[in-house]
Structure formats: C-alpha cells, structure tokens
Design a protein that fits this description.
The protein is α/β, with parallel strands linked by helices. 24% of the residues lie in helices and 22% in strands. The protein has a single domain, classed as Ribonuclease Z/Hydroxyacylglutathione hydrolase-like (Metallo-beta-lactamase, Chain A), CATH 3.60.15. It has helices at 47-58, 79-86, 96-106, 181-192, 220-226, 236-247, 256-263; strands spanning 4-10, 15-21, 27-31, 36-38, 43-45, 62-67, 89-93, 122-124, 129-132, 135-141, 150-154, 157-159, 199-201, 217-219. The longest helix is centred in the first third of the chain and has 12 residues, at 47-58.
C-alpha cells in the first residue's frame, strides 16, 4: 500500500511533521508534531499545529494516531494539543522510560514525576504493528540517536525520525545521554534492509551545501548509494570514528532544555504551582 503523505516544514527548528493517510479511507496519523516556542520570551504558540489541524479538517480526515519517533531535543511536541482538538492515541517507543529516568534526574523532577511512560497512550516495541484505517504500520526499534528512537514503516513508506537525514547530509548525532554511534550504525542497517523502493521520510533537513531547497523524501536505494556517512557499504569502524569525532564538535540544540522537559511528558508542561503558573528548569553544568 502507498500511503498519502503530506509534510509540514517548521522553519524555526528545521523539523518536518507528517500527516500519513490511508489512501482508501479517511484514517490518518500525525508524526512528530511541533509546538512553537519562543525561548527568549518563554511563550508557546500553536501556529504549526494549527496548520496540521486545518489540513485534517479541510480533508475530513480522522486522526487515529499521534506518533513520536523519539523524545525530541530540538522542538516541543504539540501532541496533547492535537489530541484535544482531533482525538487519536499518542504513541512512542517503550524505551521512553530510560529517557524519563535519565532526564528526570538531570532536571531533579522528584518522585512525583512518573518514569513508567504512563503519560503516553501506547508504548511500542520492536515488531509491534497497528492499523491506520486499512494500513498496517510495523514498528522498528532504531536506537542510536536516543535509546527510544523508533521507525514507523507504513506501506511503502518509512518514517525514520532523526536516525537518517537526506543522503547529502548524512546521519544523526549520538552524543546525547544514552546515545550510541554503534547502535546507530546497526539501526541504519535495519532500515537499509527494507526494499530499495521504500520511501524514506526524514524528520529534519538543513540543506546540505550546494542544495537550494529543503527536502525530506528519499528512498532506501538512494540512501544505500549516496548517503555521505553510511552509503557505498561504509563499515562500522569508520562510521563510529567519523560520528564520534563529528559529535564532539557540535553544540547543544537551542531548545534542548525546554524540549526534553516537555517531550518526556508526552508534550505536557510540568505541573503548575499553587498559583497556576508553569515553570521550566535550567540545570547548570548537567548537559
């Protein structure tokens, strides 16, 4: 089956969100949504999510799933807002519990913060499958960027989150807590073992040097032949050495501190204080 895929690009974070529709019905899933956040002002906005809502309502679609490929460190998720407006279940990989345990400590969340993934409606494991109307989605556990990264294979399309980028840009960083370049290499091989004509949809694009337009769709065959980090049968040792050296030069994402606190809660803000005010923490010398 060939799902209908509509992409929404967020210029502020270079994130691509997707609406994936059953071509034979109205059922759809939303993958990797964005809640706009002005870091300097501490203000949220729903402009990006509202564009998705408008598309879904204009086409009379029915949202059955709101999926996260992983706990994003560069943008906030709009999953709760979308669920409130459109329905659907919020799903993520079961290793969210590892993320919650790690960052629950970093942000000193205390015992009231549940670290069992219960903020989400569904936790997925390798080999799980579910339906989006008449479309089957198969779940691959593809860790490396984070321990909880998942790839959703829906018909002839694979939504890889941050595991792979466009062939001319390469692969994701692995230097966040719990990341592993060795794991990423093996995860990428799992993705590249899909049929060559499988469409690959990436979660970010930054326009590699020499490319004028943003892009987010490629194929398994193109990745195998042309990916600058893992194409042309690159070996694990060379990839790990390259990835680790490259990661050592990267700064933290601009929105990592608010993003992690919100996204490990399935997009919910921390509990308000007795006056109803919400605060995010800034850990010093922890990241």
């Amino acid at each position: 089956m060939k799902p209908d895929v509509t992409a929404f690009f967020d210029d502020a974070t270079n994130t691509v969100s997707f609406v994936v529709k059953d071509p034979e019905g109205s059922a759809c899933a939303i993958i990797d949504s964005v809640l706009d956040f002005d870091h300097a002002a501490g203000r949220t906005d729903t402009k990006s999510a509202d564009a998705i809502i408008a598309h879904i309502k204009a086409n009379a679609l029915k949202v059955v799933w709101i999926l996260e490929s992983h706990v994003h460190a560069d943008h906030l998720s709009a999953a709760p807002y979308l669920q409130e407006q459109l329905g659907g279940k919020i799903g993520i990989g079961k290793n969210i519990t590892l993320i919650q345990d790690t960052f629950g400590k970093i942000f000193n969340e205390g015992t009231e913060f549940q670290r069992d993934g219960s903020q989400f409606d569904q936790l997925f494991s390798e080999g799980d499958s579910f339906m989006i109307g008449q479309m089957r989605c198969d779940v691959l556990h593809t860790p490396g960027h984070t321990p909880a990264c998942m790839t959703y294979v829906i018909g002839d399309a694979a939504f890889v989150g941050d595991t792979l980028f466009m062939p001319d840009f390469g692969t994701a960083r692995c230097d966040f807590p719990g990341g592993s370049s060795e794991d990423l290499f093996h995860s990428i091989q799992k993705i590249l073992s899909l049929p060559d004509d499988t469409r690959i949809f990436v979660g970010h694009d930054y326009k590699a040097p020499g490319r004028d337009e943003f892009a987010w769709e490629t194929t398994v065959a193109a990745q195998k032949a042309n990916n600058v980090h893992v194409g042309a049968e690159a070996d694990q040792a060379s990839f790990v050495a390259m990835r680790d050296a490259r990661d050592a030069t990267l700064s933290m994402p601009k929105l990592i501190i608010p993003s992690l606190q919100v996204n490990m809660r399935a997009g919910q803000m921390p509990e308000p204080d007795e006056d109803g005010d919400v605060y995010l923490k800034v850990p010093i010398n922890k990241l």
